[in-house]
């Protein structure tokens, strides 16, 4: 086969020589095919083998035709080369090309000329986009335009019309056509009108149905209008029901029929009454249509033909060359000059087409009149002089002058001169003398501006325009005024330029200033940051503190935060790119912090535990706030609300909630109980608007009572709270349920809101007395109720009536207003009326709304008047007297604390000192820091005369006592015992520093990753910790703070040291290592499937078991690490497993390696089932073991189980051998080439193939070698490369192939 492949490759490489020797190949193959053609195309013959030289071990040779049978015969006649080449239809391109020329005089002259060639290209691109035609534009020296249009016919017509509309002078004309002819002009669906517009390059406007006008307006070029008019009139004429006739008159004689100014034509129409339609001069048609009455048409036709014949006899022609630019002066406006020449001389002037380059003018008329006409033509051609002056486009406006001043002056000095500003030229036309004067005048102006003025164009990003212009144009106006320049912003064709014009020096300076501004702006960037507008106030901060910090960091960045009225989330940043990016990141970081610290949660805590949450001097609440970094708001002292609101980061808020609830749970026995109450009584127990159940919860210490949902159909009501309060609430609920079972009666009593507290009594004593006496429940209105005077009574009818009578009696007493007095020393009056009478308002609320009046200042009266109910007056008098007694008992003491420590004592925003004043009900006054006068008799840390000097006496040596100044003395006012307690609280706030010994090895643990642990420690204990540098390896650390906090920190550090020492000792005990020698054969069993055995050993004995790695020198050693006792226990367990494994029976059986995979099964399922069923281990030989004995299979287990498994495996092996190995096909006489390659041929004595490989007899390449021709097969041979046959077609004799014959 290698030889065959080489031959084929060689034939492919020599493909270029195929046609050189085809005959030899064909002749050679014909002989072979005759010898070896098989008898049947479908038979498969067994290849015959021959021996070479009669040797027994010769390589067998097989017939090529037997191994590679030919394809079935081709039943269709092959197509001959000559017949196959059918005549192809000619394919022509649908693309057409047309050239359109627009002369200079017909170019549209508009303001757009100043845009130049760029604007022309833009228009052409737009036309290309709309029509699909390709357009190329070329501008001539004489300002004419030539267009090359490529595209389909319809595209050409559309593009031509749009080009003429865009570049050619547009005129319009109105044509009168009867309205009944409009439909013919429009055509079906307006198709005829669109085709007419396209072919004439015009726009035709036909009046709508509601318009009574009979005028059709045609707009476009002159030729187009004339052609369109002719077509419309022709369509209209054809619609006349009267007679119409046509006559053919050569175009050159039409002017004589029409006459000057259409005089002859009008005269003929008047004389005959017929309508004569003569094609316009621009339309190259000879046919004249005459319509009207039959006789009139005949008469008109006769006269027209008579004029034609007469002029045909008389006319002669003469041609004259006139410059193309002067033709329009010969033509005149709307052809008036040609008509004038015809009128004066009777000679027709024939002009070349506008798109022609010819300059020849032909005069046609009587011979005698031609000379006069020629003179007139020359006069008209030379009556106007045309001159062009070079002038840059930017100077044109200066030439025109301000408000056209120069042009007005030119018009006065040089009348009848037409001035037209082109791209870089100014064209003047008019009387030759006046034109010369105008040229001199304008040239002087142009020269002056070219010498002294200049312009510069700067390319600028449009986003910079507003910054360059400035507010209300301030920047640009300043430059204009100072430098006398003109600055314009140009935006066209995708270009964004700033153009500066003016004096040269002014333009240069303006360019420098603008460039400097642009460079600065290019280094800036703007960025919009989307931030929820609800967070804008938080970003700004109190009095703008937060946003000011950001602005201070990025002073060059402008930060614009929208006002609340703007209702947008976009915050704008502008400034240097780097600063803007950094500011953007900082703002997003600030927003994230605000969002994270804005999580709010409400924690219901029973009112009686709020004081414990606050702690002594606010210590607990402060500690929770500081350690959790949260904001915790408790309800006011008089507020009945029990909810504590926590704000901050979510995880911190949850931690604070947990710690607050922990305080409540530790202090009280919070329980939850369920009470069974029939659901039908729920509504009556809850009461209207929840009044009744709310009153029960309030009376029972604020317990939580929850009723099941109506859908649950449960009869269990849940009560949660302190154990005693829950029992109390449970009793009341059961009592209410029993009352509802007996009866339910409700009544209402009205009482002024200010009397409600008096009715309730202190701690609810009065109302409880009434309820106990009557058994009725009395509910007062809550804050949510709209009617604050209604008191509801619920219970049995008899009980409700009794309670109502008692309440009404008390209310009647409260309503009887009386007046009482109480004596208060005037020196205390100020205390009561201070803070806008806060104390008086509180007394009035507590005592039924009494009115308390103090005497006016200056009257020196000590009588205070109280008005209200008798009992209320008495209660108010008692309260006032209690307050006066407190005031009388007040005293002032002094405590000396160095002024430098006052800030520490006060705390952040005075928090610490406020806690002291609130807890001890005293007033604390700090001295002025500038009062540095010395004070005698006091020492630092001591007190003044009123307070005694104990507490700090003897704590300091005399020589170390600092002198006392006025700014060191703090004054405390209140009851003496409270003042002393407050003084001690202040002294406890003085920070101290203490040195503690902590092992140096523990310092790293105290510091933590990046100092996290030490920061948490300092925050938790409110102290400052200073650790020594690591290079000193000192054990001493310094802790500073208040004495209490330092003591807490010391205890915490001592606990850490104790834990550290214990942990170190424990680590030493856990580091015991025990090594065990175990045969590697048992390692896999110790590991177990997926590590199950070894993991269980580790878990059971709490040790680490390490097996040897591959590169370990001793592969038998297993290491056990842990406590000694546990390591020894693990060792015993391992030895026990190994011992069990060593007692197992082992047997090796022989199974053909070819069926090992069948026994193992897909993913080991078959062998695993055997292992599980017989509790044995089965091992197949590894790659190394297979070299010695690949058939060996080892079975390990109990002897009985091994025998059973052995029988099963051998049985399986026997089945597989019978089913698979014995049924393999025999090796001799294979039916495929692949079989021959692996087996020996028939007649061969040896079992394997010879070293010469597989040989095929009579193959094409062998024949080629015999013919000594190594070329590739003929690709033209139909035998080698046949067509697939069509059924039933006759078979032609094929060309014989080098590959052999076919059947």
Characterize the structure shown.
- It comes from Drosophila rhopaloa (Fruit fly).
- Residues 1240-1250 have a biased composition (Gly residues).
- Keywords: Coiled coil, Cytoplasm, Repeat, RNA-binding.
- Residues 947-960 have a biased composition (Acidic residues).
- This protein is α+β, with helices and mostly antiparallel strands and 1303 residues long.
- The protein is 43% helix and 20% strand.
- It contains 50 helices and 47 strands.
- The strands form 16 sheets. The protein has a 3-stranded antiparallel sheet with strand order 2-4-3, covered by helices on one side. Strands 5-7-6 form a 3-stranded antiparallel sheet.
- It is extended.
How do the helices and strands line up, and which of them pair or pack?
Blueprint: H1 2-13, H2 22-36, E1 61-63, H3 64-67, H4 81-84, E2 96-102, H5 117-131, E3 134-139, E4 145-151, H6 153-167, E5 171-176, H7 182-186, H8 191-200, E6 202-205, E7 215-220, H9 222-239, E8 243-248, H10 254-258, H11 263-272, E9 275-277, E10 287-292, H12 294-314, E11 315-321, H13 327-331, H14 336-345, E12 348-350, E13 360-366, H15 367-381, E14 385-390, H16 396-400, H17 405-413, E15 417-421, E16 425-430, H18 432-452, E17 453-459, H19 465-469, H20 474-483, E18 486-492, E19 495-503, H21 504-522, E20 524-530, H22 536-540, H23 545-553, E21 558-560, E22 570-576, H24 577-596, E23 599-604, H25 610-614, H26 619-628, E24 631-633, E25 643-648, H27 650-667, E26 670-676, H28 682-686, H29 691-699, E27 704-706, E28 716-722, H30 723-742, E29 745-750, H31 756-760, H32 765-774, E30 777-779, E31 790-795, H33 797-815, E32 818-823, H34 829-846, E33 851-853, E34 863-868, H35 870-888, E35 890-896, H36 902-906, H37 911-920, E36 923-925, E37 969-975, H38 976-988, E38 992-997, H39 1003-1007, H40 1012-1021, E39 1024-1026, E40 1036-1041, ...
Parallel strand pairs: 1-47
Antiparallel strand pairs: 2-4, 3-4, 5-7, 6-7, 8-10, 9-10, 11-13, 12-13, 14-16, 15-16, 17-19, 18-19, 20-22, 21-22, 23-25, 24-25, 26-28, 27-28, 29-31, 30-31, 32-34, 33-34, 35-37, 36-37, 38-40, 39-40, 41-43, 42-43, 44-46, 45-46
């Amino acid at each position: 086969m290698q030889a065959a492949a080489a031959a084929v490759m060689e034939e492919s490489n020599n493909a270029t020589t195929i046609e050189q020797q085809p005959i030899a190949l064909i002749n050679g193959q014909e002989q072979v095919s005759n010898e070896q053609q098989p008898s049947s195309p479908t038979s498969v013959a067994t290849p015959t083998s021959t021996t070479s030289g009669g040797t027994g071990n010769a390589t067998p040779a097989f017939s090529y035709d037997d191994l590679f049978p030919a394809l079935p015969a081709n039943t269709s006649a092959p197509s001959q080369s000559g017949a196959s080449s059918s005549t192809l239809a000619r394919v022509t391109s649908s693309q057409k090309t047309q050239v359109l020329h627009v002369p200079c005089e017909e170019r549209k002259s508009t303001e757009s000329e100043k845009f130049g060639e760029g604007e022309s290209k833009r228009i052409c691109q737009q036309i290309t986009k709309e029509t699909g035609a390709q357009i190329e534009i070329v501008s001539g020296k004489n300002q004419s335009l030539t267009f090359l249009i490529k595209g389909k016919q319809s595209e050409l017509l559309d593009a031509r019309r749009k080009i003429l509309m865009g570049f050619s002078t547009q005129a319009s004309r109105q044509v009168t056509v009867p309205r009944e002819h409009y439909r013919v002009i429009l055509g079906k669906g307006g198709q005829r009108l669109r085709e007419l517009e396209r072919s004439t390059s015009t726009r035709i406007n036909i009046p709508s149905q509601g318009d009574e006008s009979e005028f059709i307006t045609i707009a476009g070029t002159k030729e187009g209008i004339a052609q369109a008019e002719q077509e419309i009139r022709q369509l209209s004429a054809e619609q006349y029901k009267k007679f119409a006739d046509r006559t053919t008159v050569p175009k050159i004689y039409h002017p004589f029929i029409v006459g000057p100014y259409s005089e002859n034509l009008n005269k003929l129409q008047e004389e005959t009454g017929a309508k004569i339609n003569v094609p316009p001069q621009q339309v190259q048609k000879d046919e004249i249509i005459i319509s009207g009455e039959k006789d009139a048409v005949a008469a008109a036709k006769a006269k027209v033909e008579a004029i034609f014949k007469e002029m045909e006899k008389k006319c002669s022609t003469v041609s004259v060359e006139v410059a193309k630019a002067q033709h329009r002066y010969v033509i005149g406006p709307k052809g008036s000059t040609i008509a004038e020449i015809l009128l004066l001389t009777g000679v027709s002037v024939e002009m070349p087409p506008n798109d022609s380059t010819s300059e020849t003018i032909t005069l046609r008329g009587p011979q005698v009149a031609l000379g006069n006409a020629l003179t007139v033509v020359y006069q008209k051609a030379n009556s106007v002089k045309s001159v062009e002056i070079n002038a840059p486009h930017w100077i044109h406006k200066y030439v025109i002058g301000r408000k056209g001043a120069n042009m007005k002056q030119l018009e006065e000095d040089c009348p009848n001169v037409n001035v037209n500003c082109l791209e870089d030229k100014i064209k003047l036309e008019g009387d030759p003398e006046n034109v010369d004067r105008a040229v001199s005048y304008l040239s002087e102006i142009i020269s002056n501006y070219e010498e002294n003025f200049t312009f510069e164009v700067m390319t600028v990003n449009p986003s910079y325009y507003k910054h360059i212009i400035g507010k209300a144009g301030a920047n640009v106006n300043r430059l204009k005024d100072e430098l006398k320049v003109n600055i314009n912003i140009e935006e066209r064709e995708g270009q964004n330029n700033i153009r500066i014009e003016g004096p040269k020096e002014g333009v240069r300076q303006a360019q420098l200033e603008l460039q400097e501004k642009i460079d600065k702006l290019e280094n800036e960037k703007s960025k919009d940051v989307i931030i929820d507008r609800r967070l804008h106030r938080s970003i700004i901060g109190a009095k703008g503190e937060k946003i000011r910090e950001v602005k201070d960091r990025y002073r060059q960045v402008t930060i614009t935060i929208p006002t609340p009225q703007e209702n947008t989330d976009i915050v704008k940043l502008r400034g240097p790119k780097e600063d803007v990016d950094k500011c953007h990141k900082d703002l997003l970081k600030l927003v994230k912090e605000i969002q994270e610290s804005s999580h709010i949660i409400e924690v219901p805590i029973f009112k009686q535990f709020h004081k414990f949450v606050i702690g002594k001097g606010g210590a607990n609440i402060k500690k929770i706030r500081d350690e959790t970094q949260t904001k915790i708001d408790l309800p006011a002292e008089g507020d009945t609300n029990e909810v504590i609101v926590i704000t901050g980061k979510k995880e911190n808020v949850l931690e604070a909630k947990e710690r607050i609830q922990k305080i409540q749970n530790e202090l009280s026995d919070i329980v939850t109980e369920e009470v069974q109450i029939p659901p039908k009584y729920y509504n009556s127990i809850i009461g209207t608007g929840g009044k009744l159940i709310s009153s029960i919860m309030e009376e029972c210490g604020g317990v939580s009572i929850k009723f099941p949902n109506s859908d649950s159909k449960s009869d269990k009501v849940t009560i949660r709270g302190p154990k005693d309060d829950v029992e109390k609430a449970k009793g009341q609920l059961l009592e209410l349920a029993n009352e509802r079972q007996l009866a339910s009666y409700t009544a209402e009593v009205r009482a002024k809101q200010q009397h409600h507290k008096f009715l309730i009594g202190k701690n609810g004593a009065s109302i409880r007395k009434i309820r106990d006496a009557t058994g009725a429940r009395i509910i007062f209105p809550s804050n949510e109720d709209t009617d604050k005077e209604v008191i509801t009574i619920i219970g049995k009818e008899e009980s409700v009536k009794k309670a109502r009578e008692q309440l009404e009696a008390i209310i009647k007493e409260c309503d009887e207003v009386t007046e009482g007095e109480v004596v208060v020393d005037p020196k205390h009056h100020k205390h009561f009326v201070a803070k806008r009478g806060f104390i008086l308002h509180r007394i009035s609320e507590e005592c039924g709304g009494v009115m308390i009046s103090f005497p006016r200042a200056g009257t020196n009266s000590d009588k205070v008047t109280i008005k209200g109910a008798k009992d209320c007056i008495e209660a108010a008098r008692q309260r006032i007297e209690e307050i006066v007694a407190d005031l009388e008992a007040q005293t002032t003491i002094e405590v000396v604390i160095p002024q430098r420590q006052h800030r520490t004592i006060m705390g952040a925003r005075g928090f610490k000192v406020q806690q002291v004043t609130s807890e001890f009900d005293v007033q604390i006054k700090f001295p002025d820091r500038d009062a540095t006068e010395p004070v005698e008799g006091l020492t630092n840390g001591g007190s003044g005369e009123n307070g005694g000097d104990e507490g700090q006496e003897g704590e300091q040596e005399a020589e170390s006592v600092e002198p006392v100044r006025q700014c060191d003395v703090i004054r405390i006012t209140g009851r003496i015992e409270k003042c002393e307690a407050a003084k001690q609280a202040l002294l406890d706030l003085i920070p101290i520093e203490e040195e503690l010994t902590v092992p140096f090895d523990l310092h790293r643990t105290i510091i933590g990753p990046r100092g996290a642990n030490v920061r948490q420690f300092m925050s938790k204990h409110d102290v400052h910790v200073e650790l020594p540098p690591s290079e000193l390896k000192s054990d001493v650390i310094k802790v500073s703070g208040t004495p209490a906090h330092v003591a807490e920190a010391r205890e915490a550090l001592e606990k850490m040291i104790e834990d550290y020492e214990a942990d170190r000792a424990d680590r030493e005990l856990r580091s015991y290592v025990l090594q065990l020698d175990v045969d590697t054969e048992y390692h896999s069993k110790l590991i177990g499937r997926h590590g199950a055995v070894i993991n269980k050993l580790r878990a059971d004995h709490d040790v680490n078991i390490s097996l040897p790695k591959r590169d370990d020198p001793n592969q038998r050693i297993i290491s056990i690490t842990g406590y000694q006792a546990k390591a020894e226990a693990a060792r015993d367990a391992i030895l026990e497993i190994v011992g069990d494994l060593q007692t197992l029976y082992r047997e090796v059986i022989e199974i053909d390696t070819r069926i090992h995979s069948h026994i193992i099964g897909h993913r080991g399922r078959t062998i695993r089932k055997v292992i599980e069923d017989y509790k044995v281990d089965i091992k197949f030989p590894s790659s190394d073991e297979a070299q010695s004995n690949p058939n060996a299979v080892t079975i390990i287990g109990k002897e009985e189980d091994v025998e059973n498994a052995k029988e099963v495996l051998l049985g399986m092996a026997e089945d597989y051998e019978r089913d698979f190995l014995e049924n393999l096909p025999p090796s001799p006489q294979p039916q495929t080439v692949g079989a021959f390659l692996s087996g020996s041929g028939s007649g061969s004595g040896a079992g394997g193939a010879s070293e010469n490989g597989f040989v095929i007899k009579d193959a094409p390449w062998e024949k080629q070698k015999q013919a000594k021709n190594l070329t590739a097969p003929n690709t033209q041979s139909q035998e080698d490369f046949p067509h697939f046959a069509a059924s039933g077609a006759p078979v032609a004799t094929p060309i014989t192939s080098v590959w052999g014959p076919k059947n």
